[in-house]
Design a protein that fits this description.
The chain has 425 residues and is an alpha+beta fold. It has two domains: 3-204 and 336-424, Zn peptidases (Aminopeptidase, 3-Layer(aba) Sandwich), CATH 3.40.630; 206-334, Alpha-Beta Plaits (2-Layer Sandwich), CATH 3.30.70.360. 35% of the residues lie in helices and 23% in strands. The protein contains nine helices and 19 strands. The protein has helices spanning 3-28, 38-50, 134-153, 175-183, 230-252, 299-315, 343-356, 372-379, 402-420, and strands at 54-59, 82-88, 98-103, 123-125, 128-130, 156-158, 162-167, 189-192, 199-204, 206-215, 267-274, 284-293, 326-334, 337-338, 362-366, 383-385, 390-391, 399-401, 422-424. The chain has a six-stranded mixed β-sheet, with helices on both faces. Strands 4-5-18-17 form a four-stranded antiparallel β-sheet. A four-stranded antiparallel β-sheet has the order 11-12-10-13, covered by helices on one side. Helix 1 (3-28) packs across helix 3 (134-153), helix 5 crosses helix 6 and helix 7 (343-356) crosses helix 9 (402-420). 49% of the residues are buried. Residues 204-316 form the Peptidase M20 dimerisation domain. It comes from Bradyrhizobium frederickii. Keywords: Cobalt, Hydrolase, Metal-binding, Zinc. Belongs to the peptidase M20A family.
């Protein structure tokens, strides 16, 4: 690809950026929390059809996925769950095929009064777009679509098959991405524009979600000593799991990538529910938890460690010793992933990065997870993860930096052109 072609594509990204932001704003405005992603998938389907892509829009059947590597349990109503894939098929097939994937699901907004502006009424100010999902990762998904648009606007078309995939459940199980693989979608490489601050994810954690179900013995609070407080018992178990977190972080010091980080394994009691009355000793408490694992760590083995930790803590508790808590696996059962055997797509991306940013991409050792794991671990498809800068993901006043988004879009467009090849439209 010569310099003139590159510049035409970059200029096309600039020319289309206002339209890109308008589409991103519309996408962010849809409150696509877990179980409510349908309107976002409708929008993506319409955008793909408008562009002439072959669209596959299907309902996800959990029974098709439950025996696949990396499947996480689904607990909510999944009857409306869908994946959407738009396929571009070239007239001339000379390049290498590509999956471009984004997720449209977002985490809950939390108390609305703690946002400066409403989370689903996106606002652009000070060079940033604010809104739930603006950073993680609706701007990246729309950026990938407009990267393809820029190639067309510059007068070219790719010479390889491209699947543009919009998935759900990235924030809780990953079964949306898993469903596309079960459906049969494959390519020579995958690219996921999660917000990475302009760095390439080199290694990422896996995640285990689990729920502690703790029983107590209710009594009037006036006689609290004769009862057993399930909430306080749950706190006893949480303290034991914090010690397990310390042990796992010590183990992480042997990992070639994560040894560079302080405390890469994070345990989080994220949801707590319990009790029925302020003047009654609570008879029950449920705590939903998340803990990370590193690449190469067995999920099954670490589930056993969690169970052993909880059982040991229960044996040292007056009430739980005879009323042991239960553990439910409530979402992610996801392995960590390290990008390997990806020299060819990384070289193609390095050329694109150098043109847009200068220099070479910096590696990111990521203490969260992405859908890249399914492609690399399940099918040996090298899966790159690179995206824009932003802040407050999963927090209040989430935002994406617009200049970084434009650069990311340019890098994606040049990468697609380099990897898939081009011919004149």
């Amino acid at each position: 690809m010569n310099a003139e072609t590159q510049q035409r594509i970059l200029d096309a990204v600039d020319a289309g950026f206002e339209a890109q932001l308008a589409t991103t704003r519309d996408f962010v405005a849809i409150p696509s929390t877990r179980g409510a992603e349908g309107p976002c998938q409708d929008m993506i389907g319409d955008l793909l059809r408008e562009r002439g892509y072959e669209v596959d829009d299907w309902h996800i059947d959990v029974d098709d996925l439950k025996d696949l590597r990396g499947f996480g349990p689904i607990e909510h109503d999944f009857s409306k769950a869908r994946s959407v894939v738009g396929t571009y098929r070239p007239q001339t097939n000379d390049g290498k095929s590509l999956i471009l994937q984004g997720h449209c699901d977002v985490v809950p907004a939390g108390p609305l009064e703690l946002w400066d502006t409403p989370p689903f009424s996106p606002v652009i100010k000070d060079g940033k777009m604010f809104g739930r999902g603006a950073c993680d990762m609706k701007s990246g998904a729309i950026g990938a679509l407009y990267a393809l648009d820029a190639i067309k606007a510059a007068g070219f078309k790719p010479t390889a098959r491209i699947h543009f995939q919009s998935v759900i459940e990235e924030e809780s199980t990953g079964v949306g991405a898993l469903s596309t693989l079960q459906r049969g979608y494959r390519a020579d490489a995958c690219f996921i524009p999660e917000p990475t601050g302009g760095k390439m994810v080199r290694s990422q954690v896996g995640v285990i979600w689990f729920r502690l179900r703790v029983k107590g013995h209710p009594t009037h609070v006036a006689f609290a000593g004769s009862g057993a407080n399930a909430i306080m018992a749950a706190y006893h178990l949480i303290q034991a799991l914090q010690k397990l977190e310390i042990e796992w972080n010590e183990r992480a010091k042997a990992d070639r990538h994560f040894k560079t980080l302080n405390h890469p394994i994070n345990f989080n009691p994220g949801i707590i529910k319990g009790g029925d009355w302020a003047s009654s000793v609570p008879a029950w408490c449920d705590v939903d938890c998340r803990i990370a694992v590193l690449p190469g760590w067995s999920i099954a083995d670490h589930q056993k460690e969690i169970m052993a930790c909880v059982a040991a803590a229960a044996r040292n508790h007056r009430f739980l010793a005879n009323n042991p808590p239960e553990i439910e696996w409530s979402g992610f059962l996801s392995e960590g992933y390290e990008l390997t055997d990806a020299a060819a797509p990384e070289a193609a991306f390095a050329k694109a990065f150098g043109k847009v940013y200068g220099g070479v991409p910096e590696d990111l050792v990521f203490t969260a997870l992405t859908d890249t794991r399914f492609y690399g671990l399940n099918h040996g498809i090298p899966s790159l993860c690179f995206g824009a800068s932003g802040g407050e993901m999963h927090g209040f006043n989430e935002f994406v930096d617009l200049e970084s988004l434009k650069k990311t879009t340019k890098a994606m467009a040049l990468f697609i052109a380099e990897w898939c090849g081009l011919e004149k439209a």
